[in-house]
Amino acid sequence: MVVMRKARLMLSAAAATVVWGFGQAAVAAPVPVPVAAAVPVPVYRSVAPEADVSHHGHVSLWGGGLGVWLFSENHGPSSLAAATVRLRFSVNLVGRQEMPDACLQAGARTVLCRTGPLPADGSAGRQLALELQLTGRPNEVVVRIDTLWNGGATDRNPQNNEHEVLAPATGDEYVF
Question: What residues of the chain score a pLDDT lower than 50?
Answer without folding.
Answer: 1-27
